[in-house]
Amino acid sequence: MVTADAKFAAAIKVTFLYVALSVPLKLAFALGIAMVLNRGMRALPAYRAIFYLPSLLGTSVAIAVLWRQLFAADGLVNSLLATVGIEGPSWISNPNYSLYTLVVLSVWQFGSPMIIFLAGLRQIPGDMYEAASLDGASTTRQFLRITLPLLSPVIFFNFVIQTIEAFKAFTPAFIISGGSGGPINSTLFYTLYLYQEAFSYFRMGYASALAWVLVIIIAIFTAFSFLTTKYWVHYDD
Questions:
Q1: Beta carbons within 8 Å of 155's beta carbon, 6+ residues apart
Q2: pLDDT tens, 184-233?
Q3: What is the secondary structure of 34-57 as a DSSP string?
Q4: Cα atoms in the Cβ-side hemisphere of radius 13 Å centred on 83
Q5: What angle do CA 176, 52, 159 make, to 5 degrees?
Q6: How far is the C-alpha of 75 from the C-alpha of 72, rounded, in Å?
Q7: What end-to-end distance do the CA atoms of the chain give, in Å?
Q8: Above pLDDT 90, what percent of the chain?
C-alpha cells in the first residue's frame, strides 16, 4: 500500500489538503455568522433555520449534482463572471480548481457548527464584555481575550467533529468526478479510492485494509487533538 500504490499516496494527499482547507474555513465562517446572529435581530429562529438548511442538504446527491452544474464550463458561476468580462475556467475538469469547488461546498455547509457556536456564545456572561469596555478594551481585544478562551471547548468540539466528517467525505467527490476521482486524481478522496477498490475492482481485502488505515488516521488525529487541549482549551475550572 505504502510503497507500491501511487493512487494511495494521491488519495492521502488530496484528503489531507481537503481537510486542511475546508475545516478551518468552515469553522471561521460559522463562527462569524454565529457572532452576527448573537447580537440579536428579529426573526432569529428563521435565520437559524435558513443557515442550518445547507447542513441537512449538503451531503445529498441532489446538491452534488447541482454543484456540478453550477461549476461546469457553461454553468452559472462562469455565466456570472462573463457578465463582468471575466472568462471563468472549467472548474470541474481543471485539476487546478476541481478540489477547491468541493472545499467551497464544504464551507457552504456551515449550519451545524454555527448552531453550536451560537449556543456557546449565549453562555458567555455579558457583564464580562461590559467590564472590558469600561477598561478600554477594543472589540478585537475582547474577541481574543474573552470570546475565544471561553468558547474554546465549543471550538474544540466543532473542530474534532468537522475534521472527522471531512476525512469521511465521499458523496460530493463521487458525484462531481463521476466516480473517477478526476481529473488526474485531483478529487480522489480516500473514501472514494476505498470505494473503487471494493466495488469497482472487487478487491475486498485491500479495501478492508484501506478502511483500517482510515480508522487509524482518525484515531491518531483525535488522540493528538485531546493531548493538545491543555494548552488552548479553557474549562470552568
A1: 27, 31, 117, 148, 233
A2: 999 999 999 999 999 999 999 999 999 999 999 999 999 999 999 999 99
A3: HHHHHT--TTHHHHHHHHHHHHHH
A4: 5
A5: 80
A6: 5
A7: 46
A8: 69
In one letter, which amino acid is 9? A
Whole-number average pLDDT of the chain: 92
In 3-state terms the chain splits into helix, strand, coil percentages (rounded to 5) of: 70, 0, 30
Give the separation between CA 57 and CA 64, rounded to whole angstroms.
9
What are 6-48's pLDDT values in tens digits?
999 999 999 999 999 999 999 999 999 999 988 877 778 888 8
Nearest to 11 by CA among 223, 221, 210, 218: 210
Cell 457548527, residue located = 113
CATH tag, 19-178: 1.10.3720.10
Tell me what pLDDT residue 237 has. Answer: 58
Is 180's pLDDT higher than 90? no
Q: Is 199 helix (H, G, I), strand (E, B) or coil?
A: helix
> What are the cell numbers at 113?
457548527
